[in-house]
Amino acid sequence: MTRNKGLRKFLLLEFLGSDEIFNKLLYILFIGFLAMIYIANSHFSERRIREIQVLQDDIKELRWEYMTLASENRVKAQRSQMADRFAILGLKPFERSPYKLVVNPKKSY
Length: 109
Description:
4 helices
């Protein structure tokens, strides 16, 4: 009989008016507060993970762009490529070896 009385009390929402709920209200509010913190923390961490993934994709893209530009620069810096580009301007490579200048340190100027 006691079990039916408890079930009937629950179904008719009579337990809301009792003093038991007010005694446990602080505990219920604390549990609700912890649940809100847990949900907010999960949203915050998911947002951070998405931001990290976007930044990692940007880093990969920039790394590939750097490697492409570096290889193009190496090709353009070759002597034959430079000679071809300077030939358009009317410049040609030096035919003879460069001169070495020797300065006499004992002579004062």
